[in-house]
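Deliverable D5.2: sample structural annotation.
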Amino acid sequence: MTSILSDDLDGSRHQRFIIELKSKQTLLIAHNIDLAPRIDGLSLNDQIEFFGEYEWNDKGGVIHWTHDDPEEIHVNGWIFHNNVIYQ
């Protein structure tokens, strides 16, 4: 994890942070905290695993839908941090 950003409180609330992949590409993770628990204890340089939807942008991209979809339209995603799965 390279940056921990403030929560996005516009509309659905999202916990936001930036990760860097082994390829050096950066991604914004936008984790909906209205539908899933907040990830506790995030720190710079933490390792995470994740599953969600990737959307390209000129800054590298964003990963969202890292949680269960109550409408069952999207595949359920998750984030794994410190031996806890958040979804």
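Annotation notes: The longest strand covers residues 14-20. The CA atoms of residues 17 and 26 lie 10 Å apart.
The annotation will be released with the project's public dataset once the embargo ends.
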